[in-house]
């Protein structure tokens, strides 16, 4: 496995992809899948950065304070994010579209602010209980947790992604996957067919939170420092951009989006301060000309017809079947 990874990195080095960049590409691919799950179910949830922060801090505390291995920290971070998603999802998933987006962005900001003030809050409670001033330090507020052991390896991320791909393939052909598709297309019709819409939405929201938490654990043990600033609104926009660039018609789209948007700035280092501008232009071109994302055959067909002036072929009237447009 190590030989294959090293060989791949050697191939990518000419375009500026080193092993740390490659690892961040894989972490962001996991984040892309985390938001894909909710979008595929028709949920415009932007809580992923908040759940990523929860996973990162829980995982780091487990390795630093309890000397757990990465697997134990990964399990703990995923469970913590999933458990917190339950009480968050029950009220917020009653909302739709932009209202759900605003509510989940608010959740992410609450998580960030709680991390900033956690030590002071706990210290104040201990001071009241013990009757003397207690200085509590666990997550160091805005300074963050430093000196984290670098436990994340490339093969950990590749193995996790392979397992995730297998799960997603099975999910699409499962009863839950079909229910997700039905809810995305028409929630009322799905409910009339006997689908428990509330249950499915909450299950998908929890799965998304678990994946974001896993990405947080991997990221924390890769950067060796976690701070609340790393999980702000900018991170939320980045995660959404992975899905926008790659597309959500298939689970492979957000993975490609995460890989490309992480690799692109590194490959464009020669542009110096204009790297961000070029990356933004690429994203803008995709939104305008390929609204379904890079991994969407319908968008590519329309794009090719637009520049070749080839008219769209009419449906075959003799086939007896009606065509449906992919969402």
Number of helices: 13
Question: How many structural units, i.e. domains?
Answer: 1
**Biggest sheet features:** 2 strands, antiparallel
Binned, the helix content reads: 55-70%
Terminal CA distance:
37 Å
Structural class: mainly alpha
Q: What number is the mean pLDDT?
A: 89
Which oligomeric state applies? single chain
The fraction of residues in strands falls at under 5%
Q: Which value, in Å, is the CA radius of gyration?
A: 22 Å
What is the second-level CATH architecture?
Orthogonal Bundle
Name of the top-level CATH class:
Mainly Alpha
What would the CATH topology be? ABC transporter involved in vitamin B12 uptake, BtuC
Shape: globular
Q: What's the SSE pattern?
A: HHHHHEHHHHEHHHH
Task: Describe the SSE topology.
Elements: H1 2-12, H2 19-40, H3 48-65, H4 70-92, H5 97-130, E1 145-146, H6 154-172, H7 175-185, H8 187-192, H9 197-223, E2 225-226, H10 233-246, H11 252-267, H12 275-289, H13 297-308
Antiparallel strand pairs: 1-2
Helix pairs in contact: 2-6, 2-9, 2-10, 2-11, 3-4, 3-5, 3-9, 4-9, 7-9, 10-11
């Amino acid at each position: 496995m190590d030989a294959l990874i090293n060989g791949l990195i050697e191939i990518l080095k000419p375009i500026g992809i080193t092993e740390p960049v490659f690892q961040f590409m894989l972490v962001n691919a996991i984040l892309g899948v985390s938001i894909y799950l909710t979008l595929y179910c028709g949920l415009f949830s932007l809580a992923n950065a908040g759940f990523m922060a929860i996973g990162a801090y829980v995982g780091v505390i487990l390795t630093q304070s309890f000397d757990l291995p990465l697997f134990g920290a990964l399990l703990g971070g995923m469970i913590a994010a999933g458990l917190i998603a339950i009480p968050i999802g029950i009220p917020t998933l009653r909302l739709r579209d932009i209202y759900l987006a605003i509510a989940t962005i608010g959740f992410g900001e609450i998580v960030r602010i709680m991390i900033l003030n956690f030590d002071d809050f706990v210290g104040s409670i201990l001071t009241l209980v013990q009757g003397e001033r207690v200085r509590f330090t666990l997550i160091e507020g805005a300074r963050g947790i430093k000196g984290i052991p670098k436990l994340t390896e490339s093969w950990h991320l590749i193995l996790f992604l392979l397992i995730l791909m297998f799960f997603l393939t099975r999910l699409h052909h499962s009863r839950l996957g079909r229910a997700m598709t039905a809810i995305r297309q028409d929630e009322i019709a799905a409910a009339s067919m006997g689908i428990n819409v509330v249950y499915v939405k909450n299950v998908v929201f929890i799965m998304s939170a678990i994946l974001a938490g896993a990405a947080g654990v991997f990221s924390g043990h890769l950067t060796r420092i976690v701070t609340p600033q790393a999980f702000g609104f900018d991170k939320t926009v980045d995660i959404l951009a992975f899905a926008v660039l790659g597309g959500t018609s298939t689970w492979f789209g957000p993975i490609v989006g995460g890989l490309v948007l992480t690799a692109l700035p590194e490959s464009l280092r020669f542009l110096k301060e204009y790297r961000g501008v070029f990356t933004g232009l690429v994203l803008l071109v995709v939104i305008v000309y390929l609204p379904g994302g890079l991994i969407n055959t319908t968008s590519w067909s329309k794009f090719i017809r637009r520049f070749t002036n080839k008219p769209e072929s009419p449906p075959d009237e003799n086939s007896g079947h009606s065509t449906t447009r992919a969402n």
